[in-house]
Predict the 3D structure of the following.
Amino acid sequence: GQQVMQIPQYQHVQEGEDFTTYCNSSTTLSNIQWYKQRPGGHPVFLIQLVKSGEVKKQKRLTFQFGEAKKNSSLHITATQTTDVGTYFCAIRGDSNYQLIWGAGTKLIIKP
Amino acid sequence: EAQVTQNPRYLITVTGKKLTVTCSQNMNHEYMSWYRQDPGLGLRQIYYSMNVEVTDKGDVPEGYKVSRKEKRNFPLILESPSPNQTSLYFCASSLSPGLGYEQYFGPGTRLTVT
């Protein structure tokens, strides 16, 4: 069935450094969604990408969808303590009504 | 306020004792879903519902039941809980993920089965 691999599992950064997480699929995706989960919280929708090569920005966050629609990335510039949490990608499963999630990348700010 | 509510938020129970986790949304969403979240495994879909009386299995349905008798409610039932069902559970709703709509999540229910 449909799968998505998300790397890395963890990323430790100093405040002010950049952060990137990647999601990869072996099949062409119709779309991909990104969510953020703060520690102790629930996932919150960030964005959806649909078009090949699409790039969307939300302040310091940049989301990209690969040209072949098989991969996507989320890049945070100059991380802040408010960015701490786990970032997930989600794709449509074999059924239109299923969602398959990446394992998440946990952003940790070093003290 | 648009929201998804779950109850209880925390539950400790013993093996074999039937339990129900309730989920309700006030956004008139057609689609609702249950997930479990375990460390390193991300979110795994248990069951989902496309509308009233229409449900289907997700990736990890064994040991769980659901029902959708009303649009707003989507309870998760564990008929005979076992320790491997200890997890963090999230309910979510959306207009329809098939069309790429965002999902709104409840606050989560942390279940421990001893």
